[in-house]
Hints:
Layout: E1 12-16, H1 20-32, E2 36-40, H2 43-52, E3 57-60, E4 63-64, E5 67-68, H3 69-79, E6 84-89, H4 94-102, E7 107-110, H5 117-173
Amino acid sequence: MGNHSSGSAGIAVLLFEDNLAQATYTKRALEEEGFAVDICQTGREGLKALAEHDYQVCLIDVRLPDTTGVELLRHIQALRPRTVSIIVTGQGDERLAVEAMKSGAYEYLVKGPEMGHVAALPLVIHEALERQRLKDERAQLQTELWEHARLLEERNTQLRRANEELRRASQMKS
């Protein structure tokens, strides 16, 4: 699924949500914004889907019938490290938010009783994907920088050898 420059088209989202009514509402809202959304109601079901398909984004509820959101985050990081994970929960728990961020979540979004958080999701998803893109770009530049530094060091070593040989040849002449 390619990411088109026209907003959300083609962005594959996996929604981990055991409340089917909330899941359906969220899916419908995101699909109206052009996202492609699959729902899974358990961690096991979601990890199976992740193993079979390449999702760019995971929206994870903190409490699922068979696991916790933070535990799921760790599995997702191991299985698909490039997937952007966002915790979407009914609990505004600061300790849990810190734990989730340390475990690899890009964002921690608290659900409102009127489902107002759903309106913010497209923006949050785009910001998270942009941060991921910039992180990848920075890593690529860092790799290139190290490679240039290595080549420069190699050239310096060659120049030192050449200078040493020139010095010796010059001494032999005199």
